[in-house]
Amino acid sequence: MSSIKHNLERINLQIVDTAVSCGRRPDAVKLIAVSKKKNVKTVLEAINKGALHLGENYIQEAIEKINIIGKDKACWHFIGHLQSNKAKFAVKYFEYIHTVGTLKLAKEIDKQAKKIKKIQKILVQVNIGDEETKSGAGINDAIQLVKEVSRFENLSLQGLMCMPPFFPDPEHARIYFKQLAQLKEKIIAKKFDNVSMEHLSMGMSNDFKVAIEEGSTMVRVGTSIFGRRD
Ligand SMILES: *Cc1c(COP(=O)(O)O)cnc(C)c1O
Asked: What is the number of structural domains in the chain?
């Protein structure tokens, strides 16, 4: 059995086990296979072995791969840092954009989506650890950003995304996942029109189990599926 197949099966089982043991429906958690820096052959193998959701970080690299593989072969998620001048491509190729952290970017995505008559699904990225090196809205600005985003006709806000600081012990990430889940509840209580908080995109190879325990609906797993990146 190929290691990608084996890894996908193992992680899917771990997702189900973790969800069930904390009383959540296992089908409420989607596995996004993060294929950045992996070649077309490897991505195709993952799709053929059952990966339904693929996550990419770099626009140019993603375009090249998706043009060969086909947009309809998987659900594509953009999870990298997005510059406004690349928004057009993200809108053209991706079903979800997880990394909307500024009004400027939201506005540009809305504009590009309008041009091709698309309602673009997005998540607001929150810089939950308040790290200077990471993008995303600050936790205190996120509600205002959600409110502003809700007014764009060609955006469909689906939830929140975060990437906490890395800890060797995933238990240390729990507090950040909890904070994102609390922010989600605060936003739900505001009852903004045109805002769904269905998704929490949180958890990576090292900490996805903890993230699921704290309410993640989309775990983004790269290394544990594809091995280390060069
Ligand atoms: C690379 C990346 C991941 C996957 O990380 P792994 O530790 O390899 O599972 C998840 N989310 C984002 C935003 C990433 O850039």
From this structure: 1
Q: What are the distances in angstroms from CA 209 to CA 19, 27, 46, 95, 150?
A: 8, 15, 21, 25, 31
Give residue 221 CA to ligand 1 midpoint distance, Å. Answer: 6
Element (H, E) at 33: strand 30-34
Atom of ligand 1 nearest to the CA of 36: 1
Domain containing residue 127: 3-226
CATH number at residue 129: 3.20.20.10
Using the mean position of ligand 1's atoms as its centre, give its distance from the Cα of residue 34 in Å.
6
Question: How long, in residues, is the chain?
Answer: 230
Model pTM? 0.97
What is residue 230's predicted lDDT score, i.e. its pLDDT? 79
For residue 29, give the nearest of 38, 41, 21 by alpha carbon: 21
